[in-house]
Amino acid sequence: MQDCHKSQKIAICMVGLPARGKTYISRKLHRYLNWLGYNCKVFNIGNYRREICGTECDKSFFDSKNEQATKARNECAQLALNDLIGYLNSDGEIAIFDGTNTTKERRNMVYSSLLQQCQNVQTLWIESICDDVEVIQNNIRLTKLNNPDYVSMNPEDATKDFLGRIKMYEEVYQKIELDENLSFIKLINIGEDIQIHKVKGYLLSKIISYLMNLHIYPRPIYLTRHGGSTFNQENRVGGDCDLAQQGIKYSQKLGNFLLEEFPSQEQRNQIHCLTSTMKRATQTADIVCNILKINYLQLKTLDEINVGICDSLTYAQIAIQFPEDFAERKVNKLTYRYPRGESYLDLISRIEPIIYEIERSREPVLVIGHQAILRCLYAYFHRNEISEVPQLDIPIHVVIKLTPAAYYCEEIRIKIDPETGDKKQIEEDLQITRINILTKKKSYILL
Amino acid sequence: MQQYKKTQYKLILVLVGLPARGKTHISYKLNRYLNWIGYKSEIFSIKGAQQKDDKLDQIIDYELEIDPENQQIVEVRQKLSFQAAQQLVTFLQTEGDIALYNGLTNTKCDRQKLKSFFKEQLQLEFQVFWIESICDDPQVIVNNINESKQSRFKDKTIEQFMNHINVISQDYQTLENIENLSYIKLINIGKQVKVHMLEGYLCSKIVSFLLNLHANNRQIYLVRSCQTEYHILDKIGGDPELSAMGKQHSQQLGDYFIEELKGNKNITFFTSQMKRGIQTADIVGEKLGIIALKTKNLDEIDYGICDGLTVKEIAAKYPKQIKERKANPLEFKYPRGESFLDVIHRVEPIIYEIERSRDPVLIIAHVAVLKCLYAYYHCNQISEIPNIEIPINCVIKLVPIPYHCLESRVIIK
Q1: Among this protein's residues, is A226 annotated catalytic?
Q2: Which residues of A are annotated binding-site positions for substrate?
């Protein structure tokens, strides 16, 4: 549906005191919208401030009575805003303005600038409010102490200074009010209370639905392909074949592996197991869930990509019978649609509800899927560029364990030998993903 | 995700709000939606309880008699409200998945009593979600009364009704966090929304659904793509192009809509990604000066191994499947293809789009898909879907109004 609704540009502006999860929400939204295929970018005022004013700013820099500092901070915000407007006026579709925006004055300035200087833009304001002291302390510990601002300080001093900084902001904080006439959503105490005002339009409604499902429970997500099937062995695509002997053995070893990961039956009962309606996946799920003594859910949405007229052929046969299609697919694997079948873009659209399901779930999730499906799911968690999706490496007989952490996803890949049950942790060997890890770490430090 | 219902607990949706705030309207829409996506759902209200009670005199409409001074009527209403709650419990204990309760819930005390009643009586795991409708725009309230209650007022006037509401509102207590209930407040038909303690797959879905509701009565046009060579050959499925006759009919369709839409260019216009859909939509769109949004969700049902065969060929090659389909047409899945239930699931985002749109909606799609869309507005049971008639060259115009849906069909010659 996505290409249907690209008429308006969207500016999403965050509002809230420091350590309220604004950057966390910005990044999650950024990842989700990029995955869906929109051109989306985050503009973080803090980054601009660090570059221009340096990183040795203690809490007095944030005192509203400090005229010189206030002027400098306003300039940084303006610079970030200018870049954002430039982005939207060129090829950007959605821009996220990640800053505190805690006064009516600042919000007004941002809102009028956007309306004047951007053609046809819709704005959404996301305010994150939290008064749970424990959550705030945890936030500070996880995300601020590694911040370049505090590189030279010890944790206690850093925390004290940061709490002081929050106090500076609190003195002038004005929550969004109805009379500002803005489209907003307020997330209070991590979604315990949500307030929505004047939200209209396809994309904004979608963003709201997405935000309502976010939480910060660190539950693990296991992604694995079904066990090796007869078609896998013959190098055929599509079809609805059964598991091969190897596949059956893998399923059993997988079940045993999960028994160890979840030692008590109570923990196992909480696992959400999702699979497709194809035989090779349900057979794998049958075996695994028998061992774990849990139920699983069959969803047609997780069925493998529909290869249309190429169903049940080997790649060699496709090359001979449909040479043009074969060549076209090599050039543009992402958008190429099998005749009477689907493309990777169709897949992403199709499995979007699964992403909602996984995000919403506060319990461990196990997805037993197929190669193309898992490539799309994995790309969402791994923040891959959409162009990388068709090349991602999702090997057979490997379990990928993802644990979402503060700004990224911890990942462990375990190769399970179907014969012996040996488990070996493997490194991904794609250069692309290695760069991603590097950039992730870099942006983690930069906040 | 229909299959979820088998593993989850029961859900009770309780409506809260002063009279003429759209509670019944919301309950009807929700009930229709939940039944359509495959849950067994029913509404339990004072009106419903009255209809089921043979001993009661049916001339007085107890749902509308809200005069708080008339002690006798107040007692009857309380009794009916309690009966509705009991019927709800029976329903959930037997076959029901979801129940909507539209009774007396306007004070904190009432709500706590209701909550305890459910806890005592229901012997299984359940969740309660509270839906409150608040309105302070007098024009909206008057509109509500005009549209939905006017016909049922006998010797009453709107003024009397409004006076009663004013008296009742003195004791009205809006939902508060301290009551520890999971709720959503819709203020002025969704202009402002507050959600508290949202939990669970189904409640998230319901909240997303409610965010899209509005009170505009706009038209929805459902049309099949025009004739193709497959029609002439009696084949099903495939991705054929329009025949010459089909192109001509598309032109006539375009002309019909020029008159019908009277130059309105703000139309929500959808079609599928199949050639016949796109071609029909392109011809119609050109005449109207609008472009259709092409979405794969509206593609025709996947006929799997029967794709491209004629009806006779299928009967000869797959007699077993024909028998299965006759026995259970709704759930029958073409081997390597889809069933109607799969199509419903696939078409759900389109329903959200239609609901969200305040402009007229025009959909050019295919038989099975249109049956599912049509059923959302018209059928009480999804088992009726396979029997719905969606003729070719026919424009089905649906106008949803409070509590039901007006329909008219025009054959384009």
Answers
A1: yes
A2: 225-232, 280
Give the pLDDT confidence score for residue B8 in this predicted structure.
Answer: 64
Q: Is A382 a catalytic residue?
A: no
- Token digits of residue A278: 């194809």
Q: Angle of helix A22-36 relative to helix A352-360, nearest 10 degrees?
A: 160
Tell me the C-alpha distance between B233 and B18, whole Å.
59
Specify binding-site residues of B for substrate.
276, 300-303
Q: pLDDT for A118-175, tens place per residue?
A: 888 999 999 999 998 888 888 888 888 777 777 778 888 888 888 888 998 999 999 9
Give me the catalytic one of A261, A304, A352, A359. A304
Cross-chain CB nearest to A212 (options B198, B295, B349): B198
Minimal Cα–Cα distance from B191 to chain A, Å? Answer: 5
pTM (predicted TM-score): 0.89
Ranges of chain B whose pLDDT falls below 70: 1-8, 150-151, 154-156
Residue with tokens 């209209």: A200
Q: Could you tell me which residues of A are annotated as the binding site?
A: 225-232, 280
SS3 category, B100: strand
Rg (CA), chain B: 24
- Burial annotation A241-278 (CB, 10 A radius, 16+ → b, else e): bebbebbbbbbbbbbbbbeebbeeeeebeebbbbbbbb
* Choice among A226, A272, A382, A397 that is catalytic: A226
Which residue numbers of A have CB closer than 8 Å to B's CBs?
1, 4-5, 178, 191-199, 202, 205, 208-209, 212-213, 240, 295, 297-301, 306, 311, 340, 342, 346, 349, 353, 356-357, 360
Helix, strand, coil shares, percent, chain B, to 5: 50, 15, 35
Name the residue type at position A356: Y
Contact yes or no for B192 and A195 at CB 8 A? yes
Beta strands A40-44 and B183-187, pairing class: unpaired
Q: How many angstroms away from the CA of A268 is the closest CA of chain B?
A: 15
pLDDT, residue A29, reads 93
Whether residue A436 is predicted with pLDDT greater than 70 in this model: the reply is no
Span A85-99, pLDDT tens digits: 999 999 899 999 999
ipTM: 0.87
CB contact under 8 A, A196 and B293: no
B274 near B268, Cβ under 8 Å?
A: no
Q: Does B211 touch chain A (CB under 8 A)?
A: yes
Residue A443 has pLDDT above 80, yes or no: no
Q: Count H helices, E strands: chain B? A: 15, 12
pLDDT digits (tens, 9 = 90+) for A409-434: 888 899 988 888 788 887 654 433 43
